[in-house]
Amino acid sequence: MMVVFDAELWIWDARRADSWTFVSLPVEESEAIQDMTGGSRRGFGSLRVRVTIGGSSWKTSIFPDKRRGCYALPIKRTVREAEGLGAGDVASVTVELLDV
Question: InterPro entries, alphabetically (predicted)?
């Protein structure tokens, strides 16, 4: 399954001092991912994904965000720097689920 969307980068409040930056997957697609993956999850309910933003591509995990009702995707500092992105910016994101 592949999801393509635009999303605003945000900083996780609990780790604001560390600048942990994320984007939220759309709720509808998050629900479809949940339906597709059922109970197959790793730690913290994470799912392995391949992500592309601009010219940057990497493997990471998405995590359920109960507060927002969707999956949250961490955006690495190296990617943010390479793509000129910061909190509040909007990025075009492609997420491909692995091991489904």
Answer: AF2212/PG0164-like_sf (IPR037079), DUF1905 (IPR015018)
